Amino acid sequence: MLAALTRRWQKGRLTDPRYAGLFDEHPDEIVSVDCETTSLDIAEAELLSIGAVKLRGNRILSSESLYLLVRPEKRPDAGNVSVHGLRPRDVGDGMAPADAVFQLLDFIGGRPLVGYYLEYDMAILNKYVKGLIGCALPNRRIEISGRYYDYKLRQQPDSHVDLRLQTLVDDLKVPALPRHDALNDAITAGMLYLALKRRGFG
Q1: Inside any domain, residue 192
Q2: Do the domain assignments include residue 189?
Q3: Residue 42 is part of which domain span?
Q4: What is the number of structural domains in the chain?
Q5: Residue 90, pLDDT score
Q6: 21 in Cβ contact with 133 (< 8 Å)
């Protein structure tokens, strides 16, 4: 009930009718999404790259993926570059943030979104989305770490659950892709989602 009221309130704030479809959930596809940013502090973080890939049924549609480099207002500092490898010259020719976010909105439509610690990515994206279309992303969210937590507690009630990404990758036996690349991380989250789905936690 609360979710329905929130979506109705959000829809009332929508200022760009082109994106009314964000409120119409896709029946059989979801999108795995990941962002690389200039900081882990949401208040000051800017987008550097966006990765997204569609999933249909039990398949990752690698041919239907999105990878966008985004030009931030401030140059990434050395410590930040050491994490994601995106140097100032790499993102200097990137897209303007608004253009990248509009392209992402067109890509995801009303599909539910899946990710690993998705709340952070959504908070970053919504800093831009709200200013562009008047409301936050209304898409249903599927949090991988939460599904994995439920899966492990079903196996071992009251146990400590290690939610580090590498632990999930190793335990669920999905291929290890190079980390801190937005598209690779989105594909990894998609593989983890499907692995949990096969175990009854999709």
Answers
A1: no
A2: no
A3: 2-143
A4: 1
A5: 65
A6: no
Q: What does the alpha-carbon distance between residue 178 and residue 102 come to, in Å, rounded to a whole number?
A: 27
Does residue 180 lie in a domain region?
no
What are the residues whose beta carbons fall under 8 Å from the beta carbon of 189, sequence distance 6 or more?
Answer: 32, 33, 34, 114, 115, 116, 144
For the domain that residue 75 is a member of, what is the CATH number? 3.30.420.10
List the chain residues with pLDDT less than 50: 82
- How many CB atoms sit inside 10 A of residue 155's CB? 9
Of 3, 29, 17, which is closest to residue 193 (Cα–Cα)? Answer: 29
Would you say residue 95 lies in a domain?
Answer: yes
E strand spans, 29-184: 29-37, 47-56, 59-69, 113-115, 141-143
What is the predicted pLDDT for the residue at 55? 98
pLDDT at 171: 97
How far, in Å, CA of 126 to CA of 139, rounded?
A: 12
Name residue 47's beta-bridge partners.
Answer: 37
Q: What is the Cα–Cα distance from 54 to 106, expressed in whole angstroms?
A: 13
110's tokens: 């009303």
- pLDDT digits 0-9 by tens, 72-85: 877 666 556 545 55
Distance CA 7, CA 21 (A): 12
